[in-house]
Give the backbone structure.
Amino acid sequence: MIEKFRKYIENQHLINKGDRILVALSGGVDSMVLAELLRRCGYDITFAHCNFHLRGKESDGDEQFVREYAERVGVKLFVRQFDTLEYVETQKVSVEMAARELRYAWFNDMVNASGQLLALAHHADDQIETFFINLLRGSGIKGLKAMQPCNGLYIRPLLWASREEIKQFAVENNIQWRDDSTNSDTVYLRNKIRHDLMPVFDSIKPDAREKILESVNHLAAENQLYRELLKEKISQIETVDGVLHSIQKFALQQPVISTERSEWRKPVLSKQLLFEWIRSFGFSFSQCESIFAALDGEPGKEFYSFEYQLVIEKDSVDIFPKGINAINAFNALKVSQFERTPNFSLLTSNSNIAQLDYDKLKLPLKTRFWQQGDRFHPLGMRGTKLVSDFFNDLSFTTFKKKTTQILVDSNDQIVWIVGYRIDDRFKITDKTKTIYEIKFGE
């Protein structure tokens, strides 16, 4: 088994010369065998143990067992204790999810701070169980490919070995371990798959597990190819302008591939393309269903993920960070002030420059963003106009409405829709003595 272990690490390029490895050590047979294999192969290792305090004395016994083992073999051990049930209560998640989130948050902090690799003891049977868990969750190939041998700084050197092989190696090499009593509790989905479902497959076909693993490996390879092709496709249709990401609607409403029967493929393929684009911004598939259905509806419909806002515009779908307009950018404007001379000529060809009558201004000026109900006197017009109507006349998108600066005076009167139109009340007339000039974007 040691030779297979070495070969797998080499073939999968899991560990390079000089790498230091943090081993997630629970005290169970899988992690104990992983620790021993890494130690016997001469790798530079340390241990990390999580005590979730979910099984009373049994949890404390696991910690003590791991401490004694680490001391016996002379390997440094890090231990983190968690109040898992309190986390369950505050975060409103399951016990399984709480333990997962707590341990991975700690592991992430450790590997990011130290640059170590984190070795996890997942094996072939875990891989099969993960496949079925994701299958029952309705996952696509990204989930069905299950776990990978290497994921950033996380490595799984035992992903090739079965649970039976691991336990046999432990027995033959007198490696001690601790059994987790919850592993037999079929209230947990993974255990139900392990104890109830897999024996059925074994009875149907003796090499069922081997064939399922082959399928998982095929899915992993296909997923990798799919991701590369998808990345290329999205790069062809996505426009990125700073924090604004846009795709024209027509690109989401035409067949993704050209076939004689493309028309019946169109909805499925277009929806999948939309989902693959928006999922990276935190949107779910159920949201994708609603977004896709709204593409042919009235523009202006908005959707939100945790960090992003998606807006269906007339011709495009736009995504940008929430709270994008929460800034004051007056300091980015260049201001100059000068006395009017007889040969002064009013600049009218550049909308990024505002020339104003200084004596009509109530300083200090500041910039803000559009607010509901804003009105101003557009240059050359009689009376007032809603800023929202002004925006609509120019076919502004939601993103443009949120990010267009509005220059106001100390009384919050609008002086200039920056880059577009000044307010008629502050224009230069024959009586203007001092000119206040503001430049934007130069």
